[in-house]
Amino acid sequence: MPEPRPHPFRRLIRHTARRPSRAAGAFGAALLLPLAACQAPEDDGALVFWTPHVTPDRLAQQEATAAAFTEETGIEVDVVPMSAEDQNQSIAVGAASGDVPDVVLLAPDQAASWTAQGVLDTGTALEVVQELGPDTFSRNALRMVTFEGDTAAVPSDGWGQVLVYRADLFEQAGLDPPATLEDVADAAEELDGDGRAGIVLGTAPGDPFTTQTIEALLLAGGCELVDEAGEVALGAPECVDALDAYARMAGASVPGDQDVETTRAAYLAGEAAMLFWGSHIYDELAGLAPDFPPTCPECSDDPEFLAENSGTVGALTAPDGSPVQYGVTLNLGVPVGADTADARAFVEYLMGPGYVDSLEVSPEGRVPVRPGTPDDPQVYADAWSELPTGEDDDARAPLSEFYGEAVIGDIVEGAQSFRRWGYGTEHAAFAGPLAAENTLAGEIGPLFEGEDPAVVAASMADAARAVQADTE
Question: What is the architecture, at CATH level 2, of domain 10-159+328-389?
C-alpha cells in the first residue's frame, strides 16, 4: 500500500516492484539526498520542496505542478524526492547548519517531532490555514497537526483504512452493510464457509500492516491509547471488547498469518467476503493495476466484477456514536529558516490553484482533506473524483467510472473523519514510535491462538508503557 502507508512505506515498495528499472534509479538518488538536498538553496536560489512521492511518474507530476507555479509567480522550485526517513535525517543536519528546505510534505508524526525540536514555522502554517479558511479543512486533519495550540503544518490529503465487502454476498445472506466493529465481526462469522472466508485482514505478528489493523480496529471500538490522566489505557473494557471482535474476525479469516500482500490477493481472488485495507485498493478492484488484477472466478468474464459488486465503509461508528476511520495524512510544513514569503505562496498554491493537480499524483491514495473553498465547499472533492487513476498509463480512468456516487462520497466523507492515536496531543511523541516499532503487533499473536482478550490487552498495555517511558 501507500507510498504514504498500509505501513507508510509499503506502497513505495509496491511501486518499486511495478517499475523496477525506473524506481530503482529514483531510490538510488534518494539515498544520496540526505547529504546533498539541503544544499539546493545555495546552488540555484530556488525554493526547495521535499516530497515523499519519489517514483518517476509521481515526481514528474509534481514537477509539472511546480512549473505551473513558477510560470504564474516567477518563483523557481526544486522538487526533491525524499523518503520520510531521509527527511528526518536531513532536517536534523540542515537545522543545525542553517540549511533547510522551504516546504516539506510530511506526516503527522514528523510534524509532532519536528515541532518539539523547534524545526517548523508554526506561525506561517497558521497564517495559511486562516487565509484559506479553517472551516474548509477536515477538523480531524487539522487536529492531527496541532500541538499545544500551534498549527504545525497545513493538511493536504491522505488515505484511510476502508472495509471492502461483497455487496452481492451480503444481499444473498440478507445482511445490512456493517456500520460498527461488532457488525463486521458478526458478518464475518455469518459469511465464513462454503470455500470462502468471511473476511481477510492483517494478523501477522510484528508486521507493519498488523500494526495498522490493530489501531484501526481498536479506534473503531472506542479504545484510546491513553486516558485523561495521560496513562496508557489499552487495558480498558473498550479495548478488550475490540480485541475480542478482532479475534472473532481472525477466526473467520483466511488461515495463516496475513499481511498486506496476502490480504489483497485473497479478496481479489474471491476468497474472502470482506477485506480491511487502505484506499489504494480501489484501483486494483477496478482492474487498473496490471500487476495485481482481480482473479475471482467471475472476473475472467467480467474484469470489473469486484468493483461492481463491492461496497465500502470508510468510517465505522464507534460506541459513542462518532464516525472513526484510521487515516494517514500528508501535510505541508515550512521549516524555521525557510524563505517564508515564497514558501507561503507555494503552499497556498498547492492548496488552491494547484491542489487538484497535486492530488492527481495518486488519487486513490491522496484523498482531499480540504474538500473545497468557502464559496464552493465541494469543488476539490468533485474534481478529485474525476481524476484518472491506475498503474497502466494506457488504461488510467477516474474512480467515478467504476464506483457509484455513494462509494465516492463515502471515500471523501471518511477522509474528514481520519483519526490516529495521540496525534494532535502531547502524546504524539509516544504514539509515533509505538507504531513505527510495531510494538503492539508484537504482542498480538496469542490473541489468535485463543488467549483471553483481557490478557492480551494487559500485555499490550505493558509494552506500550515501556515505550512511553522511553519517549515522554
Answer: 3-Layer(aba) Sandwich (3.40)
